[in-house]
Amino acid sequence: APEMKDYREAALRIIDGLAVHRLTVGDLYAPIGMTPTEIRDRLCLHLPLPEQDADFLLATVETVLREIARVVSGQFISHSRENDQYFLDLKKDIDFDALIEQRAAALDANAINRYYYEILARALELTDSAYVPGFRIWQREIAWPGQGITRQGYIFLGAPNERSTAHPERDFYIHFLSLSNGDNGLKHMSDEVYYTIPAPPQDFLDVLRHYAGAREMSTISSGSNKDQYDRKADLSSRQFSTWLRENLLRFYQVTYQHETLSVAEAVAKHRLSLRELSFRDQVFRLSGAFLSS
To answer: pTM of the prediction?
Structure first.
Protein backbone atom coordinates (compact mmCIF):
# COMPACT_ATOMS: atom_id res chain seq x y z
CA ALA A 1 0.00 0.00 0.00
CA PRO A 2 1.27 3.55 -0.72
CA GLU A 3 1.08 4.54 2.96
CA MET A 4 3.40 1.62 3.83
CA LYS A 5 6.20 2.51 1.37
CA ASP A 6 8.34 4.02 4.14
CA TYR A 7 8.31 0.65 5.90
CA ARG A 8 9.43 -1.47 2.93
CA GLU A 9 12.97 -1.88 4.26
CA ALA A 10 11.61 -2.87 7.66
CA ALA A 11 9.28 -5.41 6.02
CA LEU A 12 12.19 -6.98 4.13
CA ARG A 13 14.24 -7.06 7.34
CA ILE A 14 11.36 -8.79 9.16
CA ILE A 15 11.05 -11.41 6.40
CA ASP A 16 14.82 -12.01 6.50
CA GLY A 17 14.64 -12.33 10.28
CA LEU A 18 11.82 -14.86 10.11
CA ALA A 19 13.75 -16.81 7.47
CA VAL A 20 16.86 -16.97 9.64
CA HIS A 21 14.75 -17.95 12.65
CA ARG A 22 13.15 -20.72 10.60
CA LEU A 23 16.61 -22.18 9.94
CA THR A 24 17.36 -22.27 13.68
CA VAL A 25 14.37 -24.54 14.39
CA GLY A 26 14.98 -28.27 14.22
CA ASP A 27 11.86 -28.86 12.12
CA LEU A 28 11.45 -26.52 9.15
CA TYR A 29 7.69 -27.02 9.29
CA ALA A 30 7.20 -26.55 13.04
CA PRO A 31 4.71 -23.73 13.87
CA ILE A 32 7.34 -21.79 15.81
CA GLY A 33 8.32 -18.20 15.21
CA MET A 34 8.65 -14.82 16.90
CA THR A 35 6.17 -12.50 18.53
CA PRO A 36 5.93 -8.86 17.39
CA THR A 37 7.73 -7.86 20.59
CA GLU A 38 10.59 -10.26 19.85
CA ILE A 39 10.79 -9.01 16.25
CA ARG A 40 10.95 -5.41 17.47
CA ASP A 41 13.70 -6.12 19.99
CA ARG A 42 15.82 -8.77 18.25
CA LEU A 43 15.91 -7.09 14.85
CA CYS A 44 16.65 -3.67 16.35
CA LEU A 45 14.11 -2.09 14.03
CA HIS A 46 14.22 1.65 13.59
CA LEU A 47 11.28 3.13 11.71
CA PRO A 48 10.39 6.69 10.67
CA LEU A 49 7.82 7.23 13.39
CA PRO A 50 6.24 10.48 14.55
CA GLU A 51 6.86 9.35 18.10
CA GLN A 52 9.95 7.42 19.22
CA ASP A 53 8.18 5.20 21.70
CA ALA A 54 8.53 1.45 22.31
CA ASP A 55 4.78 0.79 22.35
CA PHE A 56 4.24 2.87 19.23
CA LEU A 57 7.03 0.94 17.50
CA LEU A 58 5.42 -2.36 18.55
CA ALA A 59 2.07 -1.30 17.10
CA THR A 60 3.81 -0.33 13.85
CA VAL A 61 5.61 -3.70 13.67
CA GLU A 62 2.25 -5.44 14.07
CA THR A 63 0.84 -3.31 11.24
CA VAL A 64 3.80 -4.18 8.99
CA LEU A 65 3.34 -7.89 9.73
CA ARG A 66 -0.33 -7.72 8.78
CA GLU A 67 0.56 -5.84 5.60
CA ILE A 68 3.15 -8.48 4.68
CA ALA A 69 0.49 -11.18 5.05
CA ARG A 70 -1.93 -9.14 2.97
CA VAL A 71 0.54 -8.53 0.14
CA VAL A 72 1.31 -12.25 -0.21
CA SER A 73 -2.38 -13.15 0.20
CA GLY A 74 -1.57 -14.92 3.43
CA GLN A 75 0.61 -17.53 1.76
CA PHE A 76 3.81 -18.80 3.38
CA ILE A 77 3.41 -16.73 6.54
CA SER A 78 1.25 -17.69 9.50
CA HIS A 79 0.22 -16.18 12.81
CA SER A 80 -0.53 -18.31 15.86
CA ARG A 81 -3.46 -16.92 17.81
CA GLU A 82 -2.40 -18.99 20.83
CA ASN A 83 1.05 -17.47 21.39
CA ASP A 84 1.03 -14.44 19.01
CA GLN A 85 4.01 -15.79 17.05
CA TYR A 86 4.57 -15.13 13.34
CA PHE A 87 6.49 -17.72 11.32
CA LEU A 88 7.27 -18.74 7.77
CA ASP A 89 4.94 -21.59 6.85
CA LEU A 90 6.50 -23.42 3.93
CA LYS A 91 3.44 -25.59 3.32
CA LYS A 92 0.91 -22.78 3.35
CA ASP A 93 -0.18 -22.33 -0.24
CA ILE A 94 -3.81 -21.70 0.79
CA ASP A 95 -4.57 -18.77 3.07
CA PHE A 96 -7.24 -20.34 5.26
CA ASP A 97 -7.49 -17.33 7.57
CA ALA A 98 -8.05 -14.92 4.67
CA LEU A 99 -10.81 -17.14 3.28
CA ILE A 100 -12.36 -17.34 6.74
CA GLU A 101 -12.31 -13.55 7.08
CA GLN A 102 -13.83 -13.09 3.62
CA ARG A 103 -16.61 -15.55 4.41
CA ALA A 104 -17.29 -14.02 7.81
CA ALA A 105 -17.51 -10.52 6.31
CA ALA A 106 -20.32 -11.71 4.02
CA LEU A 107 -22.46 -13.07 6.87
CA ASP A 108 -25.48 -11.07 7.98
CA ALA A 109 -26.51 -10.37 11.57
CA ASN A 110 -28.85 -13.37 11.72
CA ALA A 111 -26.09 -15.75 10.69
CA ILE A 112 -23.64 -14.25 13.21
CA ASN A 113 -26.26 -14.55 15.91
CA ARG A 114 -26.86 -18.20 14.99
CA TYR A 115 -23.17 -18.94 15.45
CA TYR A 116 -23.16 -16.93 18.69
CA TYR A 117 -25.74 -19.31 20.08
CA GLU A 118 -23.81 -22.30 18.75
CA ILE A 119 -20.54 -21.26 20.36
CA LEU A 120 -22.39 -20.15 23.52
CA ALA A 121 -23.92 -23.63 23.83
CA ARG A 122 -20.41 -25.08 23.90
CA ALA A 123 -19.31 -22.64 26.60
CA LEU A 124 -22.39 -23.55 28.68
CA GLU A 125 -21.59 -27.25 28.16
CA LEU A 126 -24.91 -27.86 26.43
CA THR A 127 -23.49 -30.73 24.40
CA ASP A 128 -26.44 -33.12 24.64
CA SER A 129 -29.46 -33.00 22.36
CA ALA A 130 -31.90 -30.15 22.87
CA TYR A 131 -34.85 -30.96 25.13
CA VAL A 132 -37.32 -29.99 22.37
CA PRO A 133 -36.17 -30.83 18.81
CA GLY A 134 -35.76 -27.72 16.67
CA PHE A 135 -35.41 -25.36 19.64
CA ARG A 136 -32.33 -24.21 21.56
CA ILE A 137 -33.61 -25.36 24.95
CA TRP A 138 -31.99 -27.72 27.44
CA GLN A 139 -33.16 -29.06 30.78
CA ARG A 140 -30.72 -28.49 33.64
CA GLU A 141 -30.44 -28.46 37.43
CA ILE A 142 -28.94 -25.64 39.49
CA ALA A 143 -28.26 -25.34 43.22
CA TRP A 144 -30.99 -23.87 45.41
CA PRO A 145 -29.07 -21.63 47.84
CA GLY A 146 -29.83 -22.27 51.49
CA GLN A 147 -31.95 -25.35 50.78
CA GLY A 148 -29.29 -27.99 50.23
CA ILE A 149 -31.02 -29.31 47.11
CA THR A 150 -31.15 -28.55 43.41
CA ARG A 151 -33.91 -27.08 41.24
CA GLN A 152 -34.85 -28.26 37.77
CA GLY A 153 -35.46 -25.87 34.93
CA TYR A 154 -34.44 -24.87 31.43
CA ILE A 155 -31.73 -22.90 29.64
CA PHE A 156 -32.90 -21.29 26.42
CA LEU A 157 -30.71 -19.50 23.90
CA GLY A 158 -33.15 -16.89 22.65
CA ALA A 159 -36.08 -14.79 23.79
CA PRO A 160 -39.37 -16.03 25.29
CA ASN A 161 -41.27 -15.49 22.06
CA GLU A 162 -38.84 -17.80 20.24
CA ARG A 163 -39.08 -20.80 22.52
CA SER A 164 -41.48 -23.71 22.52
CA THR A 165 -43.64 -24.56 25.49
CA ALA A 166 -41.50 -27.01 27.42
CA HIS A 167 -43.31 -29.71 29.36
CA PRO A 168 -43.35 -30.44 32.15
CA GLU A 169 -43.05 -26.95 33.60
CA ARG A 170 -40.09 -26.51 35.93
CA ASP A 171 -38.76 -23.97 38.43
CA PHE A 172 -36.85 -21.61 36.14
CA TYR A 173 -35.89 -20.41 32.67
CA ILE A 174 -32.43 -18.94 32.02
CA HIS A 175 -32.35 -16.96 28.76
CA PHE A 176 -29.43 -15.68 26.72
CA LEU A 177 -30.79 -13.02 24.37
CA SER A 178 -29.52 -12.26 20.87
CA LEU A 179 -26.75 -9.79 20.08
CA SER A 180 -29.38 -7.39 18.70
CA ASN A 181 -30.59 -6.92 22.28
CA GLY A 182 -34.26 -6.42 21.42
CA ASP A 183 -36.58 -7.10 24.32
CA ASN A 184 -38.39 -9.74 22.23
CA GLY A 185 -41.32 -9.99 24.59
CA LEU A 186 -39.57 -10.29 27.94
CA LYS A 187 -42.15 -11.37 30.49
CA HIS A 188 -40.21 -10.50 33.65
CA MET A 189 -41.69 -13.46 35.51
CA SER A 190 -40.26 -14.56 38.85
CA ASP A 191 -38.92 -17.75 37.28
CA GLU A 192 -37.05 -16.06 34.40
CA VAL A 193 -33.48 -14.69 34.30
CA TYR A 194 -32.18 -12.92 31.17
CA TYR A 195 -28.56 -12.37 30.09
CA THR A 196 -27.49 -9.88 27.42
CA ILE A 197 -24.25 -8.32 26.17
CA PRO A 198 -25.35 -4.81 25.19
CA ALA A 199 -22.03 -3.60 23.73
CA PRO A 200 -19.88 -6.52 22.56
CA PRO A 201 -16.20 -5.45 22.49
CA GLN A 202 -14.07 -5.89 19.39
CA ASP A 203 -12.11 -8.90 20.66
CA PHE A 204 -15.43 -10.68 21.36
CA LEU A 205 -16.63 -9.95 17.81
CA ASP A 206 -13.31 -10.93 16.23
CA VAL A 207 -13.29 -14.39 17.79
CA LEU A 208 -16.98 -14.91 17.07
CA ARG A 209 -16.62 -13.90 13.41
CA HIS A 210 -13.56 -16.10 13.00
CA TYR A 211 -15.52 -19.03 14.41
CA ALA A 212 -18.48 -18.28 12.14
CA GLY A 213 -16.29 -17.97 9.06
CA ALA A 214 -14.46 -21.21 9.85
CA ARG A 215 -17.71 -23.09 10.37
CA GLU A 216 -19.08 -21.74 7.10
CA MET A 217 -15.95 -22.72 5.17
CA SER A 218 -15.98 -26.17 6.75
CA THR A 219 -19.45 -26.84 5.38
CA ILE A 220 -18.32 -26.22 1.79
CA SER A 221 -14.92 -27.94 2.04
CA SER A 222 -13.75 -31.54 2.12
CA GLY A 223 -10.73 -33.63 3.01
CA SER A 224 -7.74 -31.97 4.65
CA ASN A 225 -9.10 -28.49 3.95
CA LYS A 226 -12.25 -29.28 5.94
CA ASP A 227 -10.07 -30.62 8.77
CA GLN A 228 -8.11 -27.37 8.76
CA TYR A 229 -11.27 -25.26 9.05
CA ASP A 230 -12.64 -27.53 11.79
CA ARG A 231 -9.43 -27.10 13.78
CA LYS A 232 -9.62 -23.34 13.43
CA ALA A 233 -13.28 -23.33 14.50
CA ASP A 234 -12.42 -25.47 17.52
CA LEU A 235 -9.60 -23.11 18.50
CA SER A 236 -11.91 -20.11 18.23
CA SER A 237 -14.52 -21.93 20.30
CA ARG A 238 -12.00 -22.55 23.08
CA GLN A 239 -10.82 -18.94 22.94
CA PHE A 240 -14.42 -17.76 23.14
CA SER A 241 -15.11 -19.95 26.18
CA THR A 242 -12.06 -18.49 27.90
CA TRP A 243 -13.17 -14.96 27.04
CA LEU A 244 -16.64 -15.59 28.48
CA ARG A 245 -15.24 -17.03 31.70
CA GLU A 246 -12.91 -14.06 32.16
CA ASN A 247 -15.30 -11.30 31.06
CA LEU A 248 -18.84 -12.22 32.15
CA LEU A 249 -18.59 -9.66 34.95
CA ARG A 250 -17.26 -6.89 32.69
CA PHE A 251 -19.58 -6.94 29.70
CA TYR A 252 -22.81 -8.83 30.41
CA GLN A 253 -26.02 -7.59 31.99
CA VAL A 254 -28.62 -9.64 33.82
CA THR A 255 -32.34 -8.82 34.07
CA TYR A 256 -34.69 -10.21 36.69
CA GLN A 257 -38.23 -8.95 37.35
CA HIS A 258 -37.83 -5.58 35.56
CA GLU A 259 -34.45 -4.84 37.19
CA THR A 260 -31.38 -4.81 34.92
CA LEU A 261 -27.92 -4.84 36.46
CA SER A 262 -24.43 -5.39 35.17
CA VAL A 263 -23.20 -8.80 36.23
CA ALA A 264 -20.61 -7.08 38.43
CA GLU A 265 -23.41 -5.16 40.21
CA ALA A 266 -25.47 -8.34 40.57
CA VAL A 267 -22.53 -10.22 42.08
CA ALA A 268 -22.00 -7.43 44.60
CA LYS A 269 -25.72 -7.27 45.39
CA HIS A 270 -25.90 -10.98 46.18
CA ARG A 271 -22.43 -11.10 47.77
CA LEU A 272 -21.22 -13.85 45.49
CA SER A 273 -17.78 -15.03 44.47
CA LEU A 274 -17.44 -16.37 40.93
CA ARG A 275 -13.68 -16.75 40.95
CA GLU A 276 -12.24 -20.01 39.62
CA LEU A 277 -15.65 -21.08 38.29
CA SER A 278 -16.31 -22.11 34.71
CA PHE A 279 -18.55 -19.87 32.62
CA ARG A 280 -21.45 -22.31 33.03
CA ASP A 281 -21.05 -22.44 36.81
CA GLN A 282 -20.82 -18.65 37.03
CA VAL A 283 -24.15 -18.40 35.21
CA PHE A 284 -25.72 -21.10 37.37
CA ARG A 285 -24.58 -19.56 40.67
CA LEU A 286 -25.73 -16.06 39.73
CA SER A 287 -29.06 -17.28 38.35
CA GLY A 288 -29.65 -19.35 41.49
CA ALA A 289 -29.11 -16.26 43.66
CA PHE A 290 -31.71 -14.26 41.71
CA LEU A 291 -34.25 -17.07 41.67
CA SER A 292 -33.94 -17.50 45.43
CA SER A 293 -34.24 -13.80 46.26
So the answer is: 0.69
